[in-house]
Amino acid sequence: MPAYVIANLQDAAPHADIAEYIERLPDTMRPFGGRYLVHFTPHEVKEGTWAGNIVMLGFPSIEEARAWWDSPAYREIAPLRSQHITGGIILIDGVADDYTPTAAAAAIRHAANSD
Fold it and tell me: Which part of the chain is the DUF1330 domain (predicted)?
């Protein structure tokens, strides 16, 4: 099942360390099957607020996403980003190709009816 790394990055002032991080990042992802899905592309807010820039990486599985995050190659370059950019980063499982939301809806309906 695919997995994703989603970053909502804020306060990214230009800095040479950030450029180096971006240049080196693809080589850290490659051994784990990682690839860019979204990288600092403009986004359109439809509801609420969503400040900052979005970066989304895809991996074949959550295990590979975790292995990339914990890898010596990534840990070596992570400070180049974290010392200059604030924001949150999550790792999250995707859903199977045949996923349908009916089970989630049923669980919500059951919880709502139990009150």
Answer: 2-95
Residue 57 DSSP label:
E
With tokens 């990288």, the residue in question is 39
For the beta sheet containing 53-59, the strands, ordered from the edge strand earlier in sequence to the opposite edge, are: 35-39, 53-59, 3-10, 86-93
**3-state DSSP assignment of residue 6:** strand
The two three-digit tokens of residue 40, written as one number: 């600092």
* Gap between the Cα atoms of 97 and 7, Å rounded: 23
Q: Which domains, from first to last, does the chain contain?
A: 3-113 (3.30.70.100)
Q: How far apart are the first and last CA of the chain?
A: 34
What is the band of 13 on the pLDDT scale with cuts at 50, 70, 90? confident
